[in-house]
Write a structure and sequence with these properties.
Distance between the termini: 23 Å
Largest sheet: 6 strands, antiparallel
Structural class: mainly beta
Pfam family, one: HutD
CATH superfamily of the largest domain: Jelly Rolls
Shape: globular
Protein name: HutD family protein
CATH topology of the largest domain: Jelly Rolls
Number of helices: 0
Helix content: under 10%
CATH class of the largest domain: Mainly Beta
Radius of gyration: 16 Å
Number of strands: 16
Number of domains: 2
Mean pLDDT: 91
Order of helices and strands: EEEEEEEEEEEEEEEE
CATH architecture of the largest domain: Sandwich
InterPro entries: RmlC-like_jellyroll, RmlC_Cupin_sf, Uncharacterised_HutD/Ves
Amino acid sequence: MKILRVSDHKQMPWKNGGGVTIEIAIHPADATVDNFDWRISTATVAQDGAFSVFPDIDRTLAVLEGNGIILSVDGVETTLSQVSEPYSFAADAHTSARLNDGTITDLNIMTRRCAYTHEVKRIVLDNQTARLHFEEPVFLFVASGTIIIQHLEGEEILFAKDCASFSAAQKGSIAISGQAVAYLINFKRN
């Protein structure tokens, strides 16, 4: 298990220059926004506008903070809020967004179609313990609250915007507890 603390995330401009993104993890490690195989990031959206185009990329978006967004993908509108399930779409489709009421922060997961696919699951913990089962490398991103991860050497505490990665060698299950909203991100090689 590797912990990616919020203080270690990399801040950079959007591909289209319209805002700032926080890169949490990218593969390969030396990749850029133009040649990654997969990427996890957050972004603050402060105004309506077009999304950056990423050719041959699939994308999933979830709203972490704010009053939501109306996403238009090739003319089909979908309203997303903090309680919505993650929304998947082609990152090379014509995509724009309108804010419902003020700035939002979102979580973005992207994979290059020829290399990887991904699944994103929203998890809500209300002072209970849950077991996460996985067979591929996964990431656990904490949107809000605190999560305690139980492992053989003890426990690890994740705070808001922290992320834990689990390698394929750890496949099986892990116990998590706390009061939090989190996202389990699973990457599969094609």
